[in-house]
User: Which sequence fits this backbone?
C-alpha cells in the first residue's frame, strides 16, 4: 500500500523506500487577478467644477471677484451722496496635462491566460481616481491656515498626548466662520480626518455617529459622524509626517519631505473646509487612449490622459488641523 507525501512529488511505500515521481503535482493558476488595496477616495466631493474651458479654449480660468462695499451709509440733508469706487481681484486656475501609460508586448498578450489589456484598463482607472483625489488633497493641505492641537507652536512641539481633539476642530470652525466661509449645502463644514485621528473623536461625549442622524442616501462618501456643525469624512489619504520628516499618504511615501517635523511622534494633517474653497478647471476630461500601431504591432500601449487644473478659490475657506 502506498501514500502520497505532503508535497505530492513523491510516492512512498509504507515501511519502504520512497519512489520519486517528479512533476505529478501541478500548480493551478487562478484567472482571477488580485488588485492591490487602494486608498479610500474622499476629497473630490468638495470640488467646485468649472466647465468654461469646454466651451471656450484657453490655458486657464480666471475668476473675477468684487470687494465688498464698506463705510457709513448715513446721509445729511442737503449734502450730495459721496460715491465709492468698485474694486475687483482675480483668481486664476491654470490647466496642464496629466496621464499614465502602460505597455504590453504582443507575445505576452498572446500567451497570457488572462486578459492583460482589460486588467491594465482597470488599473489605469484606479490610478486616475487615486491621482485626482491626491491632487485635490495636496492643494487643500498646502494652505497656510494651520491650527495645532493644544495650541502648540508647530508640529515639532507635539508630545504623544497631543492627539486629535474636539477643541482643535472648534478652533478651525471659529476661523472659518470669522472668514465668512459658507457651510456645504448650508448645513455643515466638512473635516477630512485620518483613521488615527478619528479614533479619539469617536470616544468624545459630543460625538454623534452618522447612523444616528442620516437616513439611507443622506451620507457623504466616507462620512462617519458629526460634532455640532462639522461632518467628518474618514480617509487614509490624509497626510502623515513621520519622525524623519517623510510625508506619507495611504501608508505610502509620497517622496515629499517636510522641513519641520517631530522627531518623537508622527504628525497627522486633518483638513477642515467650507463651501467653494477649491475649483477644478477642465479643458479635456480624462479619457482612455491607445497608442495605435507600434513596432509592427509588437507592442500595445494604453493610457489615461486629461488636461485640467485645481486651485483654491477662497483661501480663507480651508484650515489644516495638525495633531500627533
Assistant:
Amino acid at each position: 500500500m502506498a501514500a502520497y507525501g505532503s508535497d505530492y512529488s513523491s510516492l512512498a511505500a509504507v515501511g519502504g523506500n520512497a519512489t520519486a515521481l517528479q512533476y505529478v503535482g501541478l500548480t493551478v493558476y487562478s484567472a482571477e487577478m488580485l488588485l492591490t488595496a487602494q486608498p479610500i477616495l474622499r476629497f473630490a466631493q468638495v470640488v467646485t467644477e468649472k466647465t468654461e474651458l469646454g466651451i471656450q479654449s484657453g490655458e486657464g480660468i480666471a475668476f473675477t471677484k468684487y470687494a465688498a462695499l464698506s463705510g457709513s451709509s448715513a446721509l445729511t440733508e442737503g449734502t450730495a451722496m459721496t460715491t465709492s469706487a468698485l474694486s475687483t481681484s482675480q483668481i486664476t486656475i491654470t490647466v496642464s496635462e496629466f496621464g499614465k501609460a502602460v505597455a504590453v508586448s504582443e507575445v505576452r498578450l498572446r500567451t497570457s491566460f488572462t486578459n492583460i489589456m482589460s486588467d491594465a484598463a482597470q488599473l489605469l482607472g484606479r490610478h486616475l481616481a487615486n491621482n485626482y483625489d491626491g491632487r485635490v488633497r495636496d492643494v487643500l493641505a498646502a494652505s497656510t491656515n494651520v491650527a495645532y492641537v493644544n495650541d502648540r507652536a508647530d508640529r515639532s512641539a507635539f508630545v504623544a498626548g497631543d492627539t486629535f481633539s474636539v477643541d482643535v476642530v472648534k478652533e478651525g470652525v471659529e476661523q472659518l466662520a470669522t472668514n465668512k466661509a459658507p457651510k456645504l449645502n448650508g448645513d455643515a463644514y466638512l473635516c477630512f480626518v485620518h483613521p488615527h485621528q478619528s479614533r479619539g473623536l469617536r470616544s468624545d461625549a459630543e460625538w454623534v455617529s452618522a447612523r444616528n442622524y442620516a437616513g439611507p442616501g443622506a451620507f457623504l462618501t466616507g462620512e462617519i459622524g458629526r460634532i455640532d456643525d462639522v461632518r467628518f469624512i474618514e480617509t487614509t489619504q490624509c497626510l502623515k509626517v513621520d519622525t524623519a520628516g517623510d510625508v506619507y499618504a495611504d501608508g505610502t511615501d509620497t517622496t515629499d519631505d517636510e522641513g519641520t517635523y517631530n522627531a518623537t511622534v508622527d504628525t497627522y494633517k486633518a483638513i477642515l473646509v467650507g463651501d467653494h474653497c477649491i475649483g477644478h478647471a477642465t479643458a479635456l476630461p480624462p479619457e482612455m487612449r491607445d497608442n495605435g500601431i507600434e513596432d509592427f504591432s509588437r507592442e500595445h500601449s494604453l493610457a489615461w490622459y486629461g488636461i485640467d487644473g485645481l486651485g483654491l478659490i477662497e483661501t480663507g475657506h480651508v484650515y489644516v488641523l495638525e495633531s500627533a
Q: What stands out?
A: The chain has four helices and 19 strands. The helical segments are 106-111, 116-141, 166-178, 195-202. The mean pLDDT is 86.
